[in-house]
Amino acid sequence: MILIIDDDSAIRTSVSLLLKRAKYDVQAVATPKEAIAVVRSLCPELILMDMNFSLTTSGDEGITLLKQVKIFQPDVPVILMTAWGSIDLAVKGMQAGAFDFITKPWNNVFLMQRIETALELSGKKKEPVLDEDGFDRSHIIGKSKALTEVLDTVKRISHTNASVLITGESGTGKELIAEAVHRNSPRAKNPFVKVNLGGISQSLFESEMFGHKKGAFTDARKSKAGRMEVASGGTLFLDEIGDMPFPLQAKLLRAIQEKEFEKVLLTFTKKTYS
Questions:
Q1: Residues 160 and 75 in one domain
Q2: Which residue segment(s) compose the domain that 180 sits in?
Q3: CB 209 within 8 A of CB 195
Q4: Confidence category of residue 85, pLDDT binned at 50, 70, 90
Q5: Of residues 124, 118, 131, the one with CA closest to residue 158
């Protein structure tokens, strides 16, 4: 069960619906008093907690409640929520025992990722959500015609080793679709490696993607496996590929097509990633 603590009824309702669609059991309360009553009698898997319950915006009420919750349920991960976020407040929350800190309003995909991470790291990750045909659609919410068509495509391609191009506007869940392909593939028990190509500098591209040997350049004090090697046997998700310079796109295209690449100072061949 996930416990939501927020004095805003709209927040309680919207987050409850979001979590219930993802097949979570949910309980929502409006006040610190109600929250303490719940954690004294039940053990939630995770708590989503607002930080202000009156006209103040300091977050002190949330910090106090967090400390009280930790007395009764020290091992339950708590994600703090506030519309008045600041670095100092986030630091206070973490010092008081919070697992994470997010600001309102949030992106639902981002929120679900934080929740899944908290549950996974605390050892309380929920069982996969399976369709009647055994398809794992965990993290994916919705039953629209468009989404159903996308998931039908995922079902067809997940059992192949084909390279897949996923397109869509920012925030539409491209990474979630990539994870769905991985989870429903024969590679599911192997790594799912995410790479933000827009965040890798041109000078370090080959080292990051293909790896390097000790002494390959000034700071190469030891050999390092590249992202492609780490993903061997699993799935490699390449994000923001369109932000790469064209020469680097050409190098990456060759590695994807040929299923082989050269480490800095060494040739390394793998044919098992996708």
A1: no
A2: 145-269
A3: yes
A4: low
A5: 131
Contact yes or no for 266/220 (Cβ under 8 A): no
pTM: 0.52
Average of per-residue pLDDT across 126-146:
74
Distance CA 227, CA 66 (A): 39
Which secondary structure element, helix H or strand E, spans residue 100, and what is its range?
A: strand 100-103
Distance CA 237, CA 104 (A): 29
Inter-residue contact 30 to 7 (CB < 8 Å): yes
Tell me how many helices (H) and strands (E) the chain has.
10, 11
Amino acid at 244: M
Q: Is residue 115 part of a domain?
A: yes
Amino acid identity for residue 71 in this structure: I
pLDDT value of position 268: 43
pLDDT (tens digit per residue) in 207-260: 888 887 777 666 767 888 888 888 888 999 999 888 888 888 888 888 888 877
What is d(CA 76, CA 246) in angstroms, rounded to the nearest whole number?
Answer: 47
| 203 and 109 co-located in one domain | no
CA pair distance 211, 267, nearest whole angstrom: 10
| Portion of the chain with pLDDT greater than 90, in percent | 26
Q: What is the 3-state secondary structure (H, E, C) of 55-94?
A: CCCCCHHHHHHHHHHHHHCCCCCEEEEECCCCHHHHHHHH
The answer to whether position 129 is within a domain reads no
Cβ contacts of residue 12 below 8 Å, gap of 6+?
4, 6, 28, 30
User: Is 274 within the bounds of a domain?
Assistant: no
